[in-house]
Amino acid sequence: MLRIQTVLWTFFVVLSVAVGADFKPRNCSEVREASVSKGFSFENVPLQEISGEHLRLCPQGNTCCTSEMEDKFGQQSKWEFENLVEETSHDLRSTFVSRHKKFDEFFLELLENTERSLNEMFVRTYGKPYMQNSEVFQNLFAELKRYYTGGNVNLEEMLNDFWSRLLERMFTLLNSQYIITEDYLECISKYTDQLKPFGDVPRKLKAQVTRAFIAARTFVQGLSVGREVANRVSKVSSTPACIRALTKMMYCPYCQAMPSVKPCNNYCLNVMKGCLANQADLDPEWNQYVDAMLLVAQRLEGPFNIESVMEPIDVKISEGIMNMQDNSVQVSYRVFQGCGQPKPSGMGSRSTRGVSDVFNARFRPYSPEERPTTAAGTSLDRLASLSSLSIHVR
C-alpha cells in the first residue's frame, strides 16, 4: 500500500512539473519582428508573454499583445481589407473606364465624320441650294448627338420633322415662281405622310436610325453604369463586426506568439462572406446586367450597327431628294390641290428654272468596303467584339 502511494505521489509531482513547463511564458521576439515587418512600431511589445486579461478580442490567456497593440491590429485589419478589395477590383474598373471612353469617342467621332462627309458631298453635288439650307441637316446631326449623349429626344418625331423641313425647303426651291408663305409651308407639312415625296426612304431610314441609336446609347450608358457600380462596390466600409472578425483571424495569432500561422481556407471564406455580404447581394443583378450587355453588344455587330447606318446616310438622304425631284410635278400638283394655288412671285415661269438647274447631280453608290476606321482606333465590329469578351466578368 505504501509503495502504491509513493508511486502515485511521484506521478503527480512529475505531472505538476510538466504542466508548469507547458505554461512557461514564451518569448515574444518573433512577434516583435513580424510586427516591425508590417510597419508597426511597437516599442512596448512584451519581451515574453504576459497575462491577457486586458484583451477584448483575442484570447485572454498568456499573450504577446498589449491593449494598444490589439487596437492597432484592428485598425490595420480594416485598412488592409479595404485596400485589398479596391486593388482586387482595379482591373474590372479599368476595363469599364477604357471601354466606355473608346465607345464614346467612337460614336461621337462617327457622327462628326458623317456630318462632315455629308456636308462636303452635298456642297459638291447641290452647291448653293444646299448651302442656303444646310441648317436643316445641321439640326439633324445636332439632335442625333443630343439623343446619343442622353438628351430627351424622340427619335421618330425628330426624323419626321427633318423630312417635313426638307420637303418645305425643296418645295420652295422647286416652285420659286410662287410666293411660299409660312402658313403655306405649315399646310405642306401636314401632307407629308400622304404625299410620300421622298418615296420609302424616310420610313426605312427612321427604322434603321432609331434601332441603331437606341442600341448605341443603351450600350454606352450600360458601360457607364457598370463603371459606377464597380467604383462604388470597390469602396468597402467595414462594419465593427467585420473588423472584429478580421482582427481575430489575421492578428490574434500574433498575440499567441504565432505570427506566421495562417487561417484555414473555410475560416477565411466565412469571414470574407460576412464582410462582403452587401456585395454578394448584388451577384444576381450583376449577372443579369452582364447578360443584357452581351446581348446589346451582339446587336451592335448585326442589324443594329450604327456604323453601317450612319456612314451611307448621305446617300440615303440623297435618294430621297432624287425621288422628290423625279416626282416634283405630281407633288406640287397634289399640294396645290390640298393647300391652294400660291400667288406668283413675278420671277417668271417655272420653265425658266427647271429641276435640273436646282439639283443637277446624283450621288455615287455607297461601297461598304470604303468604311473608314475612326481615330478612336478601330471599327465598331471590333470594339463590340472586344467588349463582349472584356465585360463578361462573373
Automatic annotation (TrEMBL):
Q: Which domain of life is it from?
A: Eukaryota
Q: Which family does it belong to?
A: Belongs to the glypican family.
UniProt cross-references to Pfam families, sorted A to Z: Glypican
Q: Which organism is it from?
A: Esox lucius (Northern pike)
Give the UniProt subcellular location, in the record's own words.
Answer: Cell membrane
Q: Which GO terms describe its cellular component?
A: cell surface; extracellular region; plasma membrane; side of membrane; synapse
Q: What does this protein do?
A: Cell surface proteoglycan.
UniProtKB keywords: Cell membrane, Glycoprotein, GPI-anchor, Heparan sulfate, Lipoprotein, Membrane, Proteoglycan, Signal
The stretch of residues making up the signal peptide is: 1-20
For biological process, the GO terms are: cell migration; regulation of protein localization to membrane; regulation of signal transduction
Any idea what this protein is called?
Glypican 6b
Its membrane topology = Lipid-anchor; GPI-anchor
